[in-house]
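From the pipeline queue, job 12 of 40. The input is one protein chain; the requested action is below.

Action: predict structure.
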Amino acid sequence: MLLGIYWDERKDEYPERSLQPAFSDEAGFILGSPPLRSVLVSADKVRVLQIQHDRFFMNWRSLGGPYPRFSNRGGGGGLLERALGEFEKLATFTSKRFGRRPTLIRVELAKIDIIQRRELHWTDVDDLAKVMPITGTFSDHHTGNREFILRFVEHETPRALVISVNSVSDQPGGDITAVRVETRAVHPLEPGQAAEAAFVEANHAVNRAFFRLINEEQLKRFRQREG
């Protein structure tokens, strides 16, 4: 109910809201009413806030507009500044209502890239394997369609890095139309560490992971044209 009061304060900026089951790291059954997650969507549907009893997410969605960058490089506020600002607004609210602010324990950063089968990115599955070798066939001669669901998890206690690479097609068994790459870094905050510094480290980790998936000689395909 208190999150409903918070939404009422933010509804001009986030007019759309819904309730969803809360995220959890633990598998199992829940007896009684399950915990819920409040989802607030901005008027342009690009920004999403997700709030539950133990987590706060800010998501940016690509709906045709330019990527605002992670940092403030190039002028204008980046996503990091925006996310920390949104968390500060929630912390101020909880401080007024409960007399204390949320305690930050860890940060998570995820980036999702869609590599489309168009323009200069790639033409067919064999060409895709030149760009992203991990998607290549395991047989000596490729004659049919190809699909893949790959997931890698690297633990460097207490940190974790998760990479998922999935083929995308318009129908089951159909030709691949895109590749979805998600890189996610989980960084617990060290004693005295600021959230911004932990996010910067996580950003370096997910960027390194993504570019290790791409053949360095093929990066020229993704260079943006000026003008």
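Job complete. The mean pLDDT is 87.
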